[in-house]
Design a protein that fits this description.
134 residues, mainly alpha, 4 helices
């Protein structure tokens, strides 16, 4: 994690904050600690961990492709894109089929939080830049 860019670290921080908020919201919704709420929390945890893995893999692929020729970089990034989504599909199928106690919607929320974290980072980063310019 030390070799990640500040942007990736901020996105991961926002991702963890959003996932924590989703966990708290889920506990408020379920109002009891039972197998459904535990499955929901485990789903969010798995989705969040998978999102962090995808962020790290994306950054490593982009850093490596910068030093390649254009055609090699294009092929490499496409292959890495496919690899990241195959991992995502494999984990989601594994969670859905092999562990039905883990809430699949919670895992999807953990995955979707990555996009919200990126938007939040972009929004807050642009507001910081505009304040620094003044």
């Amino acid at each position: 994690m030390n070799n990640l860019s500040p942007a990736s670290k901020n996105i991961i921080k926002f991702l963890i904050m959003l996932s924590t908020a989703a966990c708290i919201g889920g506990l408020i919704f379920y109002q009891t600690i039972d197998s459904y709420s535990i499955g929901y929390l485990l789903g969010i945890f798995i989705g969040t961990v998978l999102s962090i893995v995808r962020i790290v893999l994306l950054e490593k692929a982009l850093n490596k492709s910068v030093d390649m020729k254009a055609s090699q970089a294009t092929n490499y990034t496409r292959l890495q894109y496919l690899f990241r989504y195959l991992i995502t599909i494999a984990v989601m199928v594994f969670v859905g089929v092999m562990h039905p106690t883990i809430n699949l919607i919670g895992a999807l929320i953990g995955l979707v939080n990555m996009q919200f974290a990126a938007y939040l980072h972009s929004f807050l980063g642009s507001s910081k830049n505009s304040q620094q310019e003044k």
